[in-house]
Structure to design on (287 residues):
């Protein structure tokens, strides 16, 4: 059983203290808000000392005991760090009391091995997102995140930066040209091969014949990182707009909600020029 994570509750808002107690109940003392002394390593060390006093451990067994203590301590520190980093992301109306114990157990079973600071931040936002709205992140999404290396996560975040809001609904807009090596995408390592990697994780699906947004009004707005265009389609034409070749899966949509996004250079202009060539485009006006 893991030791207690030290997280003082002084000054914490109610959702934070409730989340800490919820985690403690689900995982067996992983976070106790009223304790101020880490006991994980101390308890393991005490067990080793008691064992040594009862019998003389062979050198191999002693090294194994020390290794176990160090490994469990690292896992404990990782879980503490992720929990702490989640607290600032909690909403005032978060409902961590409604989180499922099995979800929490699975989450920490996977995240306890994560020591990279940036990956811990991603995991912490998933934890906070689930506390804010229980049921937001599926077990499948947690397992996918567990399978991803840091580079995979960075690639997915880069892909999500190619996001547009079209008539109020989000779409990842990817048009690959020139054999798949298109500068505005390639600058962030987006090409057919990298998309195939993300597809293998179950985060996206590709439709090389192209994807269109259907049932659009003849006049609507599209925006990317605060920059907007007004699009007017030809009257009487099919109300649709091409958006490239990438769709986010359910897990991809869940994970995209906590990605740290930055607008790709020249992407807004690239897509505007691409859409202006659409046969049913009557006008495209940058606002």
């Amino acid at each position: 059983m893991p030791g207690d994570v030290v997280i003082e509750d002084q000054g914490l808002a109610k959702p934070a203290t409730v989340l800490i107690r919820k985690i403690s109940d689900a995982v067996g003392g992983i976070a106790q808000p009223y304790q101020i002394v880490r006991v994980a390593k101390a308890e393991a060390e005490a067990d080793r000392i008691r064992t040594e006093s009862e019998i003389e451990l062979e050198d191999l067994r002693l090294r194994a005991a020390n290794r176990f203590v160090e490994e469990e301590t690292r896992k404990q520190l990782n879980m503490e760090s992720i929990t702490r980093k989640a607290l600032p992301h909690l909403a005032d109306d978060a409902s961590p009391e409604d989180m499922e114990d099995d979800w929490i157990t699975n989450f920490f079973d996977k995240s306890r091995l994560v020591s990279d600071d940036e990956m811990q931040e991603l995991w912490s936002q998933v934890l906070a997102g689930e506390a804010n709205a229980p049921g937001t992140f599926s077990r499948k999404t947690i397992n996918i995140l567990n399978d991803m290396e840091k580079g995979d996560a960075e690639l997915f975040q880069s892909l999500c930066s190619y996001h547009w809001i079209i008539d109020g609904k989000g779409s990842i807009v990817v048009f690959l040209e020139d054999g798949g090596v298109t500068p505005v995408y390639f600058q962030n390592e987006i090409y057919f091969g990298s998309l195939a990697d993300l597809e293998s994780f179950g985060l996206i699906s590709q439709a090389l014949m192209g994807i269109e947004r259907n049932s659009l009004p003849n006049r609507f707005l599209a925006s990317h990182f605060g920059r907007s265009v007004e699009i007017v389609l030809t009257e009487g034409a099919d109300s649709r707009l091409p958006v490239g070749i990438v769709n986010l899966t359910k897990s991809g949509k869940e994970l995209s909600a906590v990605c740290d996004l930055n607008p790709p250079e020249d992407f807004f202009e690239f897509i505007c020029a691409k859409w202006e060539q659409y046969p049913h485009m009557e006008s495209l006006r940058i606002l």
